[in-house]
Amino acid sequence: MPAKTVVFTNVRKFDGDKFRWISSGEYIQMSGRAGRRGIDARGICILMVDERMEPSTAKMMLKGNADSLNSIVRQAPTGENFVKDADAFHLSYNMLLNQLRCEDSDPESMLRNSFYQFQADRAIPDLEKQVKALEEERESMIIEEEDSLKNYYNLIQQYKSLKNDIREIVFSPKYCLPYMKSGRPVCIQLIDDETSPSFSIEDHVTWGVLMDFHRVKSIIEADDANKRPEDASYALDILTRCNVSKDGVGKKTIKIVPLKEPGEPLVVSVPLSQVTSLSSARLTIPKDLLPMEARENALKKLSEFISRYPNGMPLDTDDNIHSNSYKKAVRRLEALESLFEKHEIAKSPLIEQKLKLLNRKEELTSKIRSIKKKMRSSTVLAFKDELKARKRVLRRLGYITSDDVVELKGKVACEISSADELILTELMFSGVLKDIKPEEMVSLLSCFVWQEKLQDAAKPREELELLFTQLQDTARKMAKVQHECKAVFQIFAHYVGGPVGLVQIDVESFVSPFRPDIMEAVYAWAKGSKFYEIMEITQVFEGSLIRAIRRLEEVLQQLILAAKSIGETELETKFEMAVSKIKRDIVFAASLYL
């Protein structure tokens, strides 16, 4: 598809976790398509920017370096993030089956010679040096009464953890929203940075005045209008002291600082999770806080109010909380407080400095443990567990025997690499593709090559919707098998500039990327409609639809080979007929500049 011009309809992309600016590497990859070799002296690149973009962001995108080549596999602890590295190595079922089909091939040998394994092995000497340096630093730390001090340190950590558990209950929207009134003093947890002490007995907090609160809509919640208020996320608009700084390109950074430190009085949005306590009092604050003087006077009034209570601000009671976990946490906290008072080392001189030194020693121990774990994982074969899990899936579905011999289903999956090979194979063997017309078949297959999310997309006609339901049921079955076999889900995530990804998620999240948004358009195209006619029944961009139909033809060519490999001449003929119905006119023109 030679192109003179590349148009970015959006400069943000969803990476499976959140919307973010596209990286310089992604920009280079996509904008590099502009300009036809031997025809254009230069290519044109157009960015459609419909929101404010900082100069530093634009500079990073347009003039930044290409992404470094690292074969890495990342899985988020929450199990919700895509492995989105364009150069990451992915062990697919298609790859595994093709390895097993060859007599002399060995999947483990292939993995052993992968770039990922090479980088893991090469990193070991550096990791050993790091461990040695950290162990030497740890051994050089001599602390008096270390055992007793460690016991006291553990009590402090438990105390902080319990206080946080209680705070999470007290400040859950269910309990705290009725008390969120304008003018109330609120205590805010300061976000630690590199200059903050690594350990402190006291919490790093400051005070501000609550102005308002609002519900925060995350990306995942966007289409969930029925979410209960107590289950949503909230942020508070708080007037407090802030330090405003600018970098070299003028990008502003706002950081909340203690009231007594120099800074500007600003109203900032603070997540509810950052609030540690709420005063029962209410200050009278002017409604118009645009003038700097009004904001400064409001903070002055807050400081005077705080100074009246040297032993602590009057706080809202939590008598209305009847949670058993809350009552249990409060009892444990009271027990810990009594242990603090009785502890022999509590009144030891320089206790704060000793605790900071012990904390540093604990951090070193944790870092050493983490690096050693990384070394152990580097010395074993990369992907070994994933390889075993994928084999379990293939055996359970009847793609290979217990001796790793490829069965009939496996031979079909060997030919499919441009879409989910397991789901397509299951649809073939269940008779779904054999029992429908070629136009309906290409309409169904469009769900495999289209993952863009359209707002208010029209539902397909009844017969097509029934086929889509069968696809969803098959996908759900595949997801459950993979989940039970502890295999990482393989998702064909074709976000703009995004590669195919691997991710461990729940079953419904595996099914949701299959979308019926262009089923009607593809059906009409296969029935012989003109291109301008199908554009009238869909909201998608022309280029996106052309790309999807071209990818659909690629999937059909692979299905032709798959049908041929098992002697299914009837299906082979149907796939060839489907190709002939979609491969025509502007969609498959050698150049779009006619």
Please identify the structural class as seen in this structure: alpha+beta
Q: How many helices does DSSP assign? A: 21
**Named CATH topology of one domain:** Sec63 N-terminal domain-like fold
Look at the structure and give the CATH class of one domain: Mainly Alpha
Level-2 CATH architecture of one domain: Orthogonal Bundle
Helix content: 40-55%
Describe this structure in words.
The chain is 45% helix and 11% strand. It is of the alpha+beta class. Among the domains are: 5-67, no CATH class; 180-316, Elongation Factor Tu (Ef-tu), domain 3 (Beta Barrel); 384-588, Sec63 N-terminal domain-like fold (Orthogonal Bundle). The strands form 4 sheets. Strands 5, 6, 7, 8, 9 and 10 form a 6-stranded antiparallel β-sheet that branches. Helix 14 (421-429) crosses helix 16 and helix 15 (438-449) crosses helix 21 (569-582). The longest helix has 29 residues, at 351-379. The protein starts with a strand and ends in a 12-residue tail after the last helix.
Write the layout of secondary structure elements.
Elements: E1 5-8, E2 12-14, E3 19-21, H1 24-31, E4 44-47, H2 55-63, H3 93-101, H4 107-112, H5 115-122, H6 124-139, H7 146-170, H8 173-176, E5 185-189, E6 205-216, E7 233-246, E8 252-256, E9 264-271, E10 275-278, H9 292-307, H10 324-342, H11 351-379, H12 384-397, H13 408-414, H14 421-429, H15 438-449, H16 462-484, E11 489-491, E12 501-503, H17 507-511, H18 519-526, H19 531-535, H20 542-565, H21 569-582
Helix pairs in contact: 1-2, 3-13, 6-11, 7-10, 7-11, 13-14, 13-20, 14-16, 15-16, 15-18, 15-20, 15-21, 20-21
